[in-house]
Amino acid sequence: xxxxxxxxxxxxxxxxxxxYGENVHxxxxxxxxxxxxxxxxxxxRQPAINRLVRLLxxxxxxxxxxxxxxxxxxxxxxxxxxxxxxxxxxxxxxDRQVRAVTVNIARAGAVPSQLxxxxxxxxxxxxxxxxxxxxxxxxxxENEEVVGAGIGGMKIGGDVDDAFLLFPxxxxxxxxxxxxxxxxxxxxxxxxxxxxxxIHLIVTPEYLRNMTKAHPDVRIYAIRLDRGLSPPDxxxxxxxxxxxxxxxxxxxxxxxxxxxxxGEIMNNAYV
Length: 271
Hints:
- By secondary structure, this protein is an alpha/beta fold.
- The protein has 7 helices and 10 strands.
């Protein structure tokens, strides 16, 4: 007889209650919230910044794989097989035969995407994993507010047919850059992705509204929701209950409480 305990492995992700829809997942994890708070602190500098970004994304991509990726059952002999014919682990694991593409949205996405790429290669069949690169910049209006995003260059290594298309970009502020990148893949890159997943450290209500409107099929994961400029009575409600009144961006489209521009602080380049 074999042990059936791991034939079907349930995965229950801890997330905060909200009203943003079933495709939005705000992870409820005290450890990650603490690490993110340290990352966003004014006193935190390099090399601690990039180390914390890696720590946070290691946990996030594992969460995404557990929650989104398909499974398969394996039977793997252990080192005890020579002395006992029962020394075989049988159970459900993440399916290695899955295509995945991670997209580096330069510059804040460079470190997260590289980490995600490395972990995907450890988990999946490496020949099925790819990293693409898109250089984007915010377009500013007369008052230095963000009015859109432009693509300065791309390195896309093939189609995305039946692949998990992942965008590990730390800050979901307005959503303009990411919405443009996703639209590019949908319209100009051959194949239809199996699933599109945005993976963030922080998101705002404005980002969630814009992204779910532009691309309602996209799954969104984040460690923290920042809506610090909302009225006090709105802050007392479950997130998303009064979505139109929630505000996490100041007049220059920076996140509050936020953590400063992650592209700047991760690269020590304040331009």
